[in-house]
Design brief:
The structure holds 2 protein chains of 2 kinds. Chain A has a domain of 161 residues: MetI-like (MetI-like fold), CATH 1.10.3720.10. In chain A, 76% of the residues lie in helices and 2% in strands. Chain A has a two-stranded antiparallel ribbon with strand order 1-2. By secondary structure, chain B is mainly α. Chain B is built from 13 helices and 2 strands. Chain B has a two-stranded antiparallel ribbon with strand order 1-2. Chain B is flat, with a radius of gyration of 25 Å. Classes of the chains: A mainly alpha, B mainly alpha.
Chain lengths: 252, 345
């Protein structure tokens, strides 16, 4: 690897384009950690938000009016308020109210760390959107299909798991994909509560090495790469799950 | 409720209904006299702030409505439903806002300092509410400006995505995909840190303050998303419309401006309003780069009150409540428009 590092150091000498995160050991380690933290945030929030969406859509079909109202209130509160303020509210507001626990060396640590708060609040935010997406998928299923399932003697849970979910997921996959791409793009709001993810690390690096322009474009392209990988993955899933004659007929 | 074939029926009928200007008038626009008489200047509503109430008559005029019982089946109930829906919406806003305020109060109660020498959270909120609301108004201003700039830039880009010149088409979709897929916060950083703080032109120094740069940062994703919305809307118009407009001897440009785009407005409106709601909510991101909008002011207020941690929950809950009260009606309105237009087309 040394020749590559030397080449980029030399590249800086010749062109003035300073890519410290490649040739400088310290910056490189920071950058790799930041990248993996962003990846971790993305995966954790995607999984959790889908779980929130499934649970919410399930509860929305509940027999109890109050349960449905609680879910509706959750959706409108999280959809209509800025995710950044949600993160602040959770991290600063609620984080203060929770007790602090001693760690091994006797220091008092907050019960929920900033990374965890970021994951929780972003998952709830994207989950609120997912609930509506899943609901629209569930509503797309013909009533006769559900009646057929009932006449087979399937319980509500089994109908949901075996009939409703598999069909609904195929219907709402495009919208879900859109929302998940947005979620990955939003994970960098964790920057605001000092989660050392890609953007935060880049900011640290450009503060140290004053290479704002290079770092800025690198971050932009890193996120674009992440998004394109996700889009490719989602398209592959969509193709794989496609059932002939069901869902989007023939595309557009 | 109407198939597009019906759109051409009036022209074939022996006596077209005299009052309705159907779509056939669009095709007559080749003759200047007719056009001037039949149409108000098109598409002022394209860029102007969202006012579907103002748009509705012109849209209605442009869409053919066959005088069939089926077409008007749901009509008599519509006003009643609308007012009921409005009440529900008002109640929901009130409930939501009250809920968030209760949350704030609850947080205060939980976080009350034991010795009540310091001002309580409620007093702090009341004392600083004017300043915070001023900051909120600034958020709204930024969002409206970003939306305006982004829409003005985005619609031409969206049309260019469907150009017949491959170079223009490729460039337009590359720009769209680039700004649509990059994170908004990174675009904001890009604009705020890389744009100059003043522009020197013709010996003049035009200052370019932080908030203006941030507005540009929000306008870029708006541009890309509007471009996609415009492209989708144009592509969703059935090709029969293009063919028949061409058959009447309109050039491609005339087809686009006189026939296709007027129909696109109502298709674009709901997603465009969704986009506005999202951009309004993300204006708070500007606080990360130091623009003195609501959240920046909130943390300054917090510092001014002695940085007591128990104040944070009520202060941020107040900000949440402000945005909820602003964005919830927009969302409801969008849903109502979506429902109505679904029937209309």
């Amino acid at each position: 690897m040394q020749p590559i590092y030397d080449w980029f150091r030399d590249f800086y000498e010749r062109t003035g384009i300073n890519l410290t995160f490649i040739y400088d050991d310290f910056d490189r380690v920071r950058m790799i950690h930041g990248f993996f933290l962003t990846l971790e945030l993305a995966i954790a929030t995607i999984v959790l938000s889908i779980l929130v969406g499934i649970a919410g859509a399930w509860l929305q079909g509940s027999k109890f009016v109050w349960m449905r109202r609680v879910v509706a209130a959750f959706i409108s509160l999280f959809r209509n308020t800025p995710p950044l303020v949600q993160i602040y509210f959770f991290y600063f507001g609620l984080g203060y109210l929770l007790p602090r626990l001693p760690d091994g060396s006797g220091a008092m640590l907050p019960m929920v760390s900033n990374v965890e708060w970021a994951i929780i609040s972003l998952s709830l935010f994207a989950g609120a959107f997912n609930i509506e997406i899943f609901r629209s998928g569930i509503e797309a299923i013909p009533k006769s299909t559900l009646e057929a399932a009932t006449s087979f003697g399937l319980s509500r849970w089994l109908t949901y798991r075996l009939i409703v979910l598999p069909m609904a997921i195929r219907v709402c996959l495009p919208a879900l994909g859109n929302n998940l791409v947005n979620l990955v793009k939003t994970t960098n709001l964790a920057y605001a509560i000092a989660v050392p993810e890609l953007l935060y690390v880049s900011k640290q690096i450009w503060s140290d090495a004053t290479n704002v322009r290079e770092m800025m474009f690198f971050v932009l392209f890193a996120y674009l790469a992440l998004v394109f990988v996700l889009v490719g993955l989602l398209n592959a899933i969509e193709r794989r799950l496609a059932i002939p004659g069901f869902g989007q007929q023939g595309g557009h | 409720m109407l198939s597009y074939r019906d759109a051409f029926m009036p022209a074939l009928r022996p006596s077209p209904p005299p009052t309705s200007h159907g779509l056939h008038h669009c095709f007559l626009r080749g003759c200047p006299k007719e056009a001037a008489a039949a149409f108000p200047p098109a598409d002022g509503g394209l860029i102007s702030p969202v006012r579907p109430q103002a748009l509705r008559p012109s849209l209605r005029g442009r869409l053919p409505r066959a005088p069939s019982a089926h077409a008007h089946a749901g009509r008599p109930h519509a006003p009643h439903q609308a007012s009921a829906g409005r009440w529900r919406a008002v109640r929901a806003i009130a409930l939501g806002g009250a809920g968030l305020l209760l949350l704030a109060l609850g947080a205060m109660a939980a976080a009350q300092p034991p010795a009540a020498i310091k001002a309580s959270s409620l007093e702090v909120l009341i004392r600083w509410a004017p300043l915070l609301l001023w900051g909120f108004a600034f958020n709204i201003l930024i969002s409206i400006m970003a939306m305006g700039i982004g829409t003005v830039l985005g619609i031409p880009v969206g049309i260019a995505q469907l150009s017949r010149l491959p170079a223009v088409r490729t460039a337009a979709s590359a720009v769209t995909q680039l700004f649509r897929n990059s994170p908004w916060l990174v675009l904001l950083f890009l604009c705020v840190f890389l744009l100059p703080f003043e522009i020197r032109a013709f010996g003049l120094r035009i200052p370019f303050p932080d908030w203006a740069k941030a507005t540009m940062g929000f306008a870029l994703p708006v541009m890309a998303n509007t471009s996609e919305i415009a492209r989708g809307a144009i592509q969703s118009v059935p090709t029969g419309q293009w063919d028949s407009a061409r058959a009447l001897g309109l050039t491609r440009r005339q087809c686009l401006y006189l026939v296709i785009l007027p129909q696109c407005i109502k298709r674009m409106l709901p997603p465009w309003m969704n986009l506005y709601s999202l951009i309004a909510m993300s204006t708070v991101n500007a606080s990360i780069v130091g623009v003195s909008e609501m959240i920046t002011l909130t943390s300054q207020v917090h510092a001014a009150e002695g940085s007591r941690p128990e104040l944070l929950a009520p202060l941020y809950a107040f900000a949440l409540a402000c945005f909820f009260v602003y964005c919830y009606p927009i969302g409801k309105w969008t849903q109502a428009l979506e429902r109505r237009y679904q029937v209309g087309l």
